[in-house]
Amino acid sequence: MAQYYDIDDILAEDELVPAVFQEAANGVGLFDSSDDANKVEQGSKVELPFWLARELHLRQAAAINVPPCYNKKTRDEIEADAAHVDLRNRCPHFYELGHKIAPLVGDRTIGSFLLFAFQTRYKEVLIKAHTAAMAVAAKFLTLLTKEETKLYEAAQSSMAAFKKWRMGGPRFQKAAVLGRKRKPID
Amino acid sequence: MYGKKACELVKELSSSEPGQLAAFNSNLFAQVIEECNFHFLQLQSLLSKVQGEGMENQTARNADHFGALIHHLSLVRDKRCLMAYVYNRAEVIRSFGWTIEPPLPEEIQEKLSSSEKEYSKNHSATIKSYRSEVDLDLAVDMVPPKDPYIKVRVLDDIGTVALSDQIANLARHAILFLRRTDAETYISQGLMEELTG
């Protein structure tokens, strides 16, 4: 289990996933505000945040469906050109949610799909982080998920550190005694 | 939707700069706690309803049971968000204890809630007592200096002073090599400046 206080983990679990109630539940009214029966009927389709959907799914009270960001259309787009698919718009926690949801829905292809998407995009993220100027990068950054943005920033800071190391400052601090040149013997 | 407000609280954390504090959102915080109370009341009424229907129904998973479950899960979720909010702020406050000298500046003070102020005060007191116990100044620069000696220019007539390794005449405009540790106090007082290059 991820760390209890981890902000990103909490936010990832807040993503909405489509679910179908297998059982009725009393005393909960907020899912469908149009009727005031204060009750969720069996078989009603709702979008639940993942933290709620998972527990209900494990207790067989609701069944999770695969969220639209892992559907056929997205897969086709990823296969065509992974680096230019706007994943942030679809799901800012694309990988984390997929990772959590894969064992629940029993879809074995999600795992390899995520891996494929990540690998191809990872390459692009690194290249962009190392070469692109900030003006160009701004547009590219809006396509990235939370995790990829972090990777991008990490790559940039490591590149900056590398440049600093190469251009300026002594690479190697010799002890002052060793640096002294021997006096030529006349 | 349940748990929305709690999530907003956490989102606020994630959108703020790392290592920085935003003002404590006591308004939203109180709203989430209110929501917790609402869930708790609902949970209680549903549970008493379940119990009232007898033992045989308690194991049978009826609608009341799942209603109660949803309220319970929402409670747990709200708790997690609240805890994460407080915990992550506390982490930033702890880091202040190491980087900023004890009385926190006004602009940071006003962003803290009253219990956070208390926490920060106690934490820096703990650091202070620990520091005096190990007899080390733990707040100094983590990067070791390249040379124990630095070249400084004296900006004011200080006079002849006994330093840790020599007795130096610190006359105005004198340029000399001093031990870094000796020079640091003078530099911070503005009586010397470091010469580089």
From TrEMBL, chain A:
The record's GO CC annotations read:
GINS complex
UniProt-listed InterPro entries = GINS_A, GINS_bundle-like_dom_sf, GINS_Psf3, GINS_Psf3_sf, PSF3_N
Q: Spell out the Pfam families in the cross-references.
A: PSF3_N (PF22466), Sld5 (PF05916)
UniProt keyword terms in alphabetical order: DNA replication, Nucleus
Please report the stretch or stretches of sequence annotated as the GINS subunit domain. Answer: 70-166
- Coiled-coil portions: none
Instruction: Pinpoint the DNA replication complex GINS protein PSF3 N-terminal domain residues.
Output: 5-56
Task: Tell me the GO BP annotations in alphabetical order.
Answer: mitotic DNA replication initiation
Its annotated compartments are: Nucleus
Please report which protein family the annotation says this sequence is part of: Belongs to the GINS3/PSF3 family.
- Name of the protein in question: Uncharacterized protein
From TrEMBL, chain B:
**Keywords on this record?**
DNA replication, Nucleus
A single GO CC term, please? GINS complex
Q: Name one GO biological process term.
A: DNA strand elongation involved in mitotic DNA replication
- InterPro entries hit by this protein: GINS_A, GINS_bundle-like_dom_sf, GINS_Psf1, PSF1_C
According to the entry, every stretch annotated as the GINS subunit domain falls at 47-133
Gene3D superfamilies of this UniProt entry? 1.20.58.1030
Query: Which CDD domains is this protein grouped with?
Result: GINS_A_psf1
The record places domain DNA replication complex GINS protein PSF1 C-terminal at 146-196
Location of this chain's protein in the cell: Nucleus
Q: Is the keyword Nucleus in the record?
A: yes
Q: Which coarse location class describes where this protein primarily resides?
A: nucleus
Recorded family membership = Belongs to the GINS1/PSF1 family.
Q: List the protein's name.
A: Uncharacterized protein
